[in-house]
Sequence to fold (374 residues):
Amino acid sequence: MIGQRLKLARTAAGLSLRDLVDKLAPKVSAQALSKYERDEMMPSSGVLIALCDALAVSEDYLLGERDMTLEGVEFRKKDQMSRREEAQVEARVLHLFERYMTLEELLGLSIDWDEPREAPYPVIKEDADADRAARSLRQAWGLGLDPIPNLAELLEERGIKVLAIDDEKMDGLTARVRRGSGKPAPVIVINKKDWSERKRFNLAHELGHMVMEVDPAVNAEKAAHRFAGAFLMPAESLWNEVGRHRTSISLAEIHRLKKLFGASFQAITYRCKDLGIINGSVFGALFDLYEAKGWRRPPYEEFGAIDPDHEEPRRYERLCFRALSEGAISEPKAAELLGISVRALNQKLDNPGADDIDAPHSAMVRPDVSASNG
Fold:
């Protein structure tokens, strides 16, 4: 029966029942479509093909039997989202996750979630406990105090599925996907259109939600912010770079820290304040400067941004190309899994790296402005 999958695919496409009926008219009535979704009736082969075309899914997908549900969904939103918009994002996540699992199973390359034995880390005090959680996770994963070159890659190596979707209202999402009676798998979703420093911070923020158990009396979002800063910029590393106490700090220094840690000017400034490296006066002066430069307004992007595709999750795409090369899937199937046309797939295969040729690169500007508490 196809009811659950049909409704999931329709929701992921952002279509109401009436919208889908209109796309299929005059082949399907609203009554018939409603019966399909309630598993009270099966569509004919012709209607099934029309449904697949309208929803951009395969017959195998609609006829599949895998049962999946999202648990513990936590959104980080830029703008207010309606429940329908949230449901659409959740449906897209399940849709993408299933494709991911299909590839892993075809290739026998599933990675279990490397959850630290001590997790979830208790957070009773927002600042100290969040820092402690970040330090403990780094220790459990053997990361030391070094900057993390690519956070998306690290998380995927540890068994967290990282997905990127286009949604102007969402910064990030964390959840667990339960497949039947199996153990739930963690997933983090980021906004594909965000700039890389923002993606890195959002990944670390969502990771914080995943590994911390925050006391109800503590602001969970602030704790996740604190965790993200601590995970990306360990205190000892930052102290080694700029010292423990400063009465002023220049944009040139912060820019150098940006290149080292892959964090934004604002995230670095917050981290310096949290660690007591700068006081509130210096912090305020820097943020006044960021406001004047327009960095605190959409699209928020600062100068000297790292490659816009740096934190794009790539493992799913690599698995897809590997499955195609090993004959596990056909070209049409590979194109479907990647969400592109066969022609676009062939262009990728024939001209690897072409996507990067015209990629925009932010101009490097030498900062020479200092901020002080005077």
Observations:
- The chain has 18 helices and eight strands.
- The two ends are 71 Å apart (CA to CA).
